[in-house]
């Protein structure tokens, strides 16, 4: 047999044996990233009748890992910390200070595709207290594997209600 | 019964069947609050070789729904609480965990991992337990599996 072919066969056999030696249950890390995203949104408190225009600013820190699982599913491991503060621009200097601070983490496995996580965080203010929450919405893009955060207002803490 | 009344009745039944089919096609809801026993389930304490047989309760509160295209909207609270006795140590271990998840996922089952510390009530080492709790593709809670580890 030609020496070149012998070498090719040996190389191919070695590659195949290495491939076979890899554990079938291995998960492959596709992304590991940390990012600080500046956040800004003007929100109404949906728990009150009066309109507000609360201009929140702050930062969302995202620590994210994406894995390809043996069955072809996506595993998303996320730790998110958000800190926001703001005032009601309709009240000007008379506005109380609204604050949001909290962290959430999730480890979830799903079929490949777009996904969205909703993390509810209590809003406190220096004047009164109600069930006003900010939802930090994290949109997962399956092509870039990145999360994009956004903000929404809610008058619920997101806990499922029993039937 | 007059022909007109019969026709009207037939129309109502057809309307109800159509509405029911439409509801099934657009969304399948599964609002539940279920508490069930778990165990006995034996898990190793990989930190010291103890073998711990757990028993306890598992609670699922779900308000999930599935769109007509299969997209999963998951709003679930999962709580697990249990205790067990290690062998051969005879020491009691306690474990408890609660997770709230809220999200939208592609069609298919969704699995959440929840890692928590198992506390030893004696001189033996603590260890960690990961609960794999599953939401089936129809939005209902599925089986929960366990895996222990010793990573601090």
Topology (SSEs and partners):
The complex is a heterodimer of chains A (163) and B (152).
Chain A: H1 3-21, E1 28-43, E2 54-68, E3 74-88, E4 97-110, E5 115-125, E6 133-140, E7 147-154
Antiparallel strand pairs in A: 1-2, 2-3, 3-4, 4-5, 5-6, 6-7
Chain B: H1 3-26, E1 27-44, E2 51-67, E3 72-87, E4 92-105, E5 110-120, E6 127-135, E7 141-149
Antiparallel strand pairs in B: 1-2, 2-3, 3-4, 4-5, 5-6, 6-7
Give an overview of the whole structure.
Chain A has 163 residues and is mostly beta strands. Chain A has one domain (25-154). Helix content of chain A is 12%, strand content 53%. Chain A contains one helix and seven strands. Chain A has one helix at residues 3-21, and strands spanning 28-43, 54-68, 74-88, 97-110, 115-125, 133-140, 147-154. In chain A, strands 1-2-3-4-5-6-7 form a seven-stranded antiparallel beta sheet, with no helix packed on it. The longest helix of chain A is centred in the first third of the chain and has 19 residues, at 3-21. With 152 residues, chain B is α+β, with helices and mostly antiparallel strands. Chain B has one domain. Helices cover 16% and strands 62% of the residues of chain B. Chain B is built from one helix and seven strands, in the order H-E-E-E-E-E-E-E. Chain B has one helix spanning 3-26; strands spanning 27-44, 51-67, 72-87, 92-105, 110-120, 127-135, 141-149. In chain B, strands 1-2-3-4-5-6-7 form a seven-stranded antiparallel beta sheet. In chain B, strand 2 and strand 3 (72-87) form a beta hairpin. The longest helix of chain B is centred in the N-terminal third of the chain and has 24 residues, at 3-26.
List keywords for this structure.
heterodimer; A: 163 residues; mainly beta; seven-stranded antiparallel beta sheet; 1 helix; 7 strands; elongated; B: 152 residues; alpha+beta
